[in-house]
TrEMBL record:
Stretches that traverse the bilayer: 6-25, 32-47, 59-78, 90-114, 120-138, 150-171, 191-210, 222-238, 299-320, 332-352, 358-378, 423-444, 456-478, 499-520, 526-545
Magnesium listed as a keyword: no
RCK C-terminal domain span: 579-663, 668-754
Protein name: Cation:proton antiporter
Native source organism of the sequence: Candidatus Parabacteroides intestinigallinarum
Subcellular location per the Swiss-Prot or TrEMBL entry: Membrane
Length: 757
């Protein structure tokens, strides 16, 4: 008898238990993540009465794969450009939460006597709210279009990046066993250079590759290519000394800038869901219920710290950024939980063997408790806002209103500020890319070239190739912004500006000389003076070469074209200018999307008949119908299934509109349910002895006129009569095939509808 591998049987136990438990949690309207954790407890070694997983180490490998796909999917939703757009509110709020909760978690760990390393990791675990749980809660409660929801989503985007940075920093601290500012700074710089290099090179290459291969990319090939790219970046990240999760996140964020991002996200979702389920089940498998009971008081204390700390720090951070008090409180109450990143950081501590085993199940238990309370905390935000409004003195409220209105004014930026900001971004980006390319070239490519072409010839060839590779970027470092509007204005405004402007150019030239010196000094054996002279000559050639100028401009155009491709596509499909949407947001007005469902009672009716403006105080500004976009539709415009309505209104108006649509859809569903009972069906009846139909023809029986049914066939002995004529006479034993409404057919079969009734 054949034996299946242990891994397959363990996987069967995991998925069966996860499926059954999550069905129960769905029925109870609880997050499926909690169901996975409970399933893990049941499938884990702590429960001996039922079949459990036998090879835990193999499942941990699956769990690692789950983390990779979770971070990859998170990166697809992240996008570095989205980080730039979230604004000061999200950045200030996230920084306040992360720093505050890190400190509070660290102090709580020390208070419990858990030591420095356990306390440090505890602080990291408590500093990140759960993106998955909050998205699900907002979706279930219909709050996605509320103003505070946009603030919360922005904070979550920034927290995702901080979480990735935190994993790298905690790994560095764990390896060195102590905290040193120089080592942390070194790690941050390396991480920043790595992220910048991957982002720039990835944006330059991947969108172009996907565009050229688009005709070959069906769903199957695109899924395989996307996962291959993800795992390839995982390998690169681990080779560079970073975690596999960071590599997956980076590749996801790069692909998030491509036109295919939404399609990739849709294709990867089932894979992410499967391996994510295995990951969360493996989290539950590491929990010992007896240990939870033993540490019940620390669990309750940390749960209290998370909920109170997140509410206070998030509310303060959002308030500090200039948002109104109500938005700040609603945001704080929404973020009062920890989730998937807490598990990942806890697993990191275990894998590095720097945290005690009790910390993992404690944090999981805290996550379960805070997740359970998340919907209730969101609902408590409104009463808390009313309480704060009554409790605060009038002068405080006036101060907060002035502060919030003042933060929305647009600051004027000087020409110097704009120029220096642009130069810092350009010079920093190109310098980081050049440094990484030079390092990779000297460490990887040059040894291969020297193997096939040893001696000075190999060195010269290697130098020529690397200079050809980085020369467009070197030229951009020196020449970019020298003919910009800000540069020209400063040059002509005052002669005192010319000295600093020329100094900026000279400094950039010296930076290019230093970058050229890196490969020159490594590959050429000569005196320092000669090497410096060679570097200066090469730099001047790069600056004044017209061919390099054209190449540099073309490369830059391709990069920015790739970077903005998705944004251009979204702008083409977008119902309204995004800047206008942000302008509305500042005035408590929102643009929200609502889809016309199939069988909706609004279907086929005109906007004048529906009269949403009077009934819900909202305006339909756009109707998106496939590729067609109808801006400012007239009252005679009718709605069709799957139309997307873009409406504008305040929080309360949009919520009223959503509820109005749901109530109408429920009423329509009840009507459709009644109509389904009148659906046409096909049945057969047998004419038995004593039936009043015997001896009567079809037309005489009244089956069509009185019972509203149609005879489509009669089986008589070995013969079948298809579509019998109206004068066909029924005989005993005939099997009659009828088509009609279900209720009428039942009455016919029971003999309740007969001729003469």
């Amino acid at each position: 008898m054949s034996q299946i591998p242990t891994l397959i049987s363990d996987l069967a136990v995991i998925l069966i238990s996860a499926g059954l438990v999550t069905l129960l949690f769905k029925k109870l309207k609880q997050p499926v993540v909690l169901g996975y954790i409970v399933a893990g407890i049941l499938a884990g070694p702590s429960i001996e009465e039922i079949p459990t997983v036998t090879d835990v180490e193999s499942i941990r490998i699956w769990a690692d794969i789950g983390v990779i796909f979770l971070l990859f999917a998170l990166g697809l939703e992240f996008s570095f450009k989205k980080l730039v757009k979230v604004g000061g509110t999200a950045v200030i709020g996230a920084i306040t939460v992360v720093i505050g909760m890190m400190t509070l978690g660290y102090a709580t760990g020390l208070l419990l006597g858990w030591g420095q390393m356990n306390s440090l990791f505890l602080g990291g675990m408590l500093s990140m709210s759960s993106t998955t749980i909050i998205f699900k809660a907002f979706d279930d409660m219909g709050l996605q279009n509320q103003r505070f929801a946009g603030v919360v989503f922005g904070i979550l985007v920034v927290e995702d990046l901080f979480a990735v940075l935190l994993m790298v920093l905690l790994s560095t601290v764990a390896v060195s066993k102590h905290v040193e500012g120089i080592e942390l700074l070194d790690s941050v710089v390396k991480l920043g250079v790595f992220l910048l290099f991957c982002f720039v090179v990835g944006i330059y290459l991947l969108p172009s590759f996907l565009k050229k291969a688009k005709s070959f990319l069906n769903d199957e090939t695109l899924l395989v290519v996307s996962i291959g790219l993800c795992l390839g970046m995982v390998i690169i990240a681990t080779k560079a000394g970073f975690s596999s999760a960071l590599g997956a996140f980076v590749m996801g964020s790069i692909l998030a800038e491509t036109v295919e991002a939404e399609r990739i996200e849709r294709l990867v979702k089932p894979v992410k869901d499967l391996f994510g389920a295995i990951f969360f089940v493996s989290v539950g498998m590491l929990i010992d219920p007896q240990m939870l009971w033993e540490y019940k008081w620390p669990i309750l204390l940390i749960t209290f710290v998370v909920m109170v700390g997140q509410i206070l720090f998030a509310s303060f951070g959002v308030l500090l950024s200039g948002q109104p008090l109500k938005i700040a409180i609603q945001s704080g109450f929404s973020l009062a939980q920890i989730g998937e990143f807490a598990f990942i950081i806890a697993g990191l501590g275990l894998s590095l063997k720097v945290t005690d085993h009790f910390l993992y199940p404690i944090v999981v238990a805290v996550s379960v408790l805070t997740t359970f309370f998340t919907p209730y905390m969101i609902r408590l935000a409104e009463p808390a806002c009313r309480l704060a409004d009554r409790a605060l003195p009038e002068r405080w409220k006036r101060f907060l209103e002035r502060y919030a209105s003042g933060s929305n004014t647009i600051p004027q930026k000087s020409a110097w500020h704009k120029l220096l900001k642009s130069l810092a971004r350009i010079v920093g980006t190109y310098t980081a890319v050049c440094v990484v390319l030079i390092f990779i070239w000297l460490q990887v490519v040059t040894p291969v070239l020297l193997h096939y072409l040893p001696g000075w010839r190999g060195n010269v060839l290697s130098l020529a190739l690397i200079l050809m590779l980085i020369s467009p970027m070197l030229r951009a470092i020196v020449m970019k912004k020298n003919h910009s509007e800000e540069f020209q204005r400063l040059w002509h405004d005052s002669k005192y500006n010319r000295g600093p402007l020329v100094s900026l150019i000279i400094l950039r030239i010296l930076l290019c000389v230093a970058l050229v010196m890196l490969p020159v000094a490594r590959l050429l054996n000569a005196a320092v003076g000669i090497l410096l002279a060679i570097a200066v000559v090469l730099t001047l050639f790069i600056i004044f070469s017209k061919r390099l100028k054209r190449r540099s401009i073309l490369m830059e155009r391709q990069f920015f074209s790739n970077l903005s491709a998705r944004e251009v596509e979204e702008e083409r499909k977008s119902p309204i200018n995004q800047r206008f949407a942000n302008h509305l947001l500042e005035r408590d007005l929102h643009l929200a999307d609502f889809e016309v469902k199939q069988n909706s009672p609004s279907m086929g009716k005109s906007l004048r008949e529906l009269n949403f403006r009077q009934k819900c105080n909202v305006n339909v500004v756009t109707i998106i119908r496939g590729d067609q976009r109808i801006n400012i539709p007239g009252g005679d415009e009718r709605l069709y299934p799957f139309d997307k309505l873009v409406v504008v209104g305040s929080d309360n108006d949009l919520e009223h509109f959503r509820q109005y649509l749901e109530e109408r859809y429920k009423q329509s569903s009840a009507e459709r349910s009644a109509m389904r009972r009148r659906e046409i069906r096909m049945e057969q009846i047998t004419i038995s002895e004593g039936s009043c139909l015997i001896g009567r023809s079809i037309i005489q029986s009244g089956i069509r006129d009185k019972a509203a049914c149609l005879v489509i066939g009669i089986e008589r002995g070995a013969t079948s009569i298809k579509n019998p004529p109206p004068d066909t006479v029924f005989e005993k034993g005939d099997i009659v095939w009828l088509v009609g409404e279900r209720e009428r057919l039942i009455q016919l079969s029971e003999g309740q509808v007969v001729a003469g009734d």
